[in-house]
Every structure is written in C-alpha cells, then in structure tokens.
Fold:
Amino acid sequence: MSISFVTSTFNEERNIAKCLDSVEGLVDEIVLVDGSSTDKTVEIAKKYKANILVTNNPPIFLINRQKAIDMAKGEWLLQLDGDEVATPELIEEIRGVLKKDTKENGYFIPRKNWFMGRFLMKGGQYPDYQLRLYRKDKVHFELKDVHEQAIVEGEKGYLKNAMLHYPYPDFNAYLVKWRRYNNVFAKQIKDQLAHKSTPFKIYKGIDYLILRPVYWFFLTFGRHKGFVDLWSGFVFSFFSSLRFPLSYLHHFKVKDA
Structure:
C-alpha cells in the first residue's frame, strides 16, 4: 500500500530534519505545508524532495494540516508535527500493520512528550494517544479547535510503540506557545459567553477563575500522579491549570470579529 507522510510547519528548522529522517524508508512521498516560516524550514525540507506548499500561518494550524492531507496521493497517511520523531520500533510496527488486510481505517499512536529535561510519563501526559495513521479517504478535521483530533470514519486501532515529541527547546519557548494557545482559548470563551444571561456569566467566571484550575491541578498532579515526574510534573500541572483563569481574564480584551 502507498503511504504519504504529511505535516504542517512553522519555524521548525531545529527539528524538521530529525522528523523527516525518522520516516525515510517508510513513506512514498513527503507533503509539507508551511505557514511562511522565517527560518530555514522550507530550505531543509527541499533536500528531502518534499512536495511543499507555502501559505499563511492560521491560529488553528490544523487548517494547514488538512491542506497537506488534501495534497497527499497515498492510500495511507502518516502525520507527524515538525517537532515529532518516529522511533525505529514505531516504523517497523507501521510496516507490519500495512502489510495486513486490516479492517481499521485509522490508528492511535502513543506519544512521549519532552518537557524540562525529561519525558513526562504521568500527569495524564502518557500514553497521550494521537490519531496519526489513517486512510486518506476516511479522514478529515472539523477545524474548530487547535487541539482537536482527526476524525476517521469506521474502526480504529492502537499501536504500541511511541513517537517522541520535542515541543520546547527551552522554557521560554514553552511560554510562547502556551500564551498562543491561551489567546485561542480566550476567543473561544468570549464566543461561549456571548449573549448569555448574567447569572450564567457569573457562574462561568467562578468556574474558570477557581473551580477548573483547582480541579485540573489536583487531577493531573494528584490523581494522575504528576508528582512522579518531580519538578517537571509540578510545573506542567501548574501552568496547565493556570490557563483557565488567565484565558478567562484575557477574553475581556478580545475584540469582536
């Protein structure tokens, strides 16, 4: 079966070569949609004979991921972000799956996330299943939220071997991406509260300012054992919880469309 590798990128010159190296030998083509990177991402991708489209960089980057899917020619698609790497074990498992007459139209792949010097293995951060291997004619995105999973028609399965995610070269890079996601979340909160009653808005204010952050911190750091990841686990749980009150406060500054 033919398989295409699809990805969307923006300023991934630090990571893209490792990403593309990791899938070489498995895929029949590489399709990359770039959001007008200002670094050498596109220049590096050209060395891999990738089919490249340079376009804008929308806040919901899944729009560019969908464009890459539409451009691909393979029957099956493997999708990784520019800062993700397929391990050799994962590549071999995918080869085995595609040799079978499988009834599944998509597969979830476990993901290990690198944060502050270690892979987070608790706090709800592993196995962090991502739906990244699917038949081209069975997949699409709703394109409503930056964190949404692909929608695949029919049956889906789970792979055992993980891909590796290196999203933040340093903590400042984490804060940049964290603020960007919070801005999108603030817009969603504003849309959610538009034209709602005053009692409802008061309740949601209490929810976002107090209830959700407290619940989320104790869920991830306590129940899901984020404390096992030590300081990294604490920082991740804390900032994950902090996004609720800060995004809520920021929604007052979001301008109407």
Observations:
- The CA atoms of residues 103 and 191 lie 40 Å apart.
- The chain has seven helices and 13 strands.
- The chain has a mean pLDDT of 94.
